[in-house]
Design brief:
This protein has 322 residues and is an alpha/beta fold. The chain is 49% helix and 15% strand. A hairpin with a 5-residue loop joins strand 8 and strand 9. Helix 7 packs across helix 8 and helix 9 crosses helix 11. Bound molecules: zinc ion. The site of zinc ion has 7 residues, from helix 7.
């Protein structure tokens, strides 16, 4: 029996609409994200046909289908046209207002709180790239099916399948496979199922990041460096940059010890000027407590001798220490 209050929630980009063909507008050699072009090409998306079948089944049972998307309502007309073209039945369409650049999870959770507070969400379909939204559904105890990226070559639209993959972490993700490289499909399926799902991958990366910055904070304390100022996120990041920089500084100090006898014998004046310059540059670095300063200067702060020499020399020059 279907409860009167049940609904199904489904996303668009990377869920109902397969967006591989337009991802190059965001990820390209230029490194420029052309959001306008990415958005404008939505009319050419391939529909996720097997998922549409699932939605139709629910709809036939009387469960309304709510399309809830972070896609900008700038392309509402194209979107409605696309839904009509592929004969996708739905009961409501919520698109993010134009010029709303808040995280999608804020928009989506607000729409649900304001319009469907009394409904039971039977299931939500979300892209596995929308980590925060997927996590929010999990926190609300909403069963959420994740849709992964296409695993075929996307070259033709004739061959199409939605594969259910159980990952090593025991999470299940639906992957659209389209394109005619189907002889590769068993390999891709094997590869996917041997690894964790994207959600768990990102969780692992975040944990590793936290471990890294904790390590960096510990080393900074050992060294007697002052605590950094800024947001939690900034200081965590800056702490790892500072750790690298001081690792390089240590290598410079060691190198100076090695060259000291000869350098001093050759040109004592020059050597002492240089020593002073380096010493003052290191003090300058020790006194940088603004996390943003480290983030802004992170280029070239690698933990090796050359980077250390370049870093200290540039500070000494800029500050007139030589
Ligand atoms: Zn997982």
């Amino acid at each position: 029996m279907t409860s009167h209050n049940e609904i199904v929630i489904c996303g668009l980009d990377g869920v109902l609409a397969l967006i591989e063909h337009r991802l190059h507008h965001l990820y390209n050699e230029e490194g420029i994200k052309h959001w306008d072009r990415f958005l404008a090409a939505c009319g050419d998306d391939m529909p996720n046909l097997p998922l549409i079948e699932r939605l139709n089944q629910a709809r036939a049972e009387g469960v309304p289908i709510i399309l809830l998307t972070g896609r900008s309502s700038e392309v509402k007309k194209q979107t409605i046209e696309w839904l009509r073209h592929w004969q996708i039945g739905y009961d409501a369409l919520w698109m993010r207002p134009a010029n709303d650049f808040k995280p999608a999870v804020e928009f989506k959770s607000n729409v649900i709180a304001q319009n469907y507070a009394n409904a039971t969400i039977r299931r939500a379909y979300e892209s596995d790239s929308h980590i925060d939204v997927a996590r929010w559904f999990a926190d609300q105890n909403v069963p959420c099916t994740l849709i992964g990226h296409n695993q075929g070559n996307s070259a033709t639209r004739d061959v199409f399948e939605l594969k259910i993959i159980r990952h090593a972490c025991n999470h299940t993700v639906l992957y659209p496979f389209y394109g005619d490289d189907d002889f590769n499909w068993p390999e891709r399926i094997k590869h996917l199922s041997e690894g964790p799902c994207r959600l768990c991958q990102v969780e692992e990366q975040r944990k590793e990041q936290r471990r890294k910055s904790e390590r960096a904070r510990y080393h900074a304390k050992q060294r007697g460096l002052p605590p950094l100022e800024g947001s939690d996120k900034q200081t965590a990041w800056a702490e790892t940059i500072r750790l690298n920089a001081f690792g390089a500084v240590d290598k410079v100090l060691k190198w100076m010890e090695q060259i000291a006898p000869r350098a001093e014998a050759e040109d004592p004046d020059h050597w002492h000027t240089m020593q002073q310059g380096i010493k003052r540059s290191i003090e300058y670095l020790e006194n940088q407590i603004d996390a943003k300063w480290w983030i802004d200067h992170r280029q070239g702060m690698a933990n090796n001798l050359d980077s250390g020499r370049a870093l200290l020399a540039s500070i000494a020059q800029e500050m007139g220490y030589y």
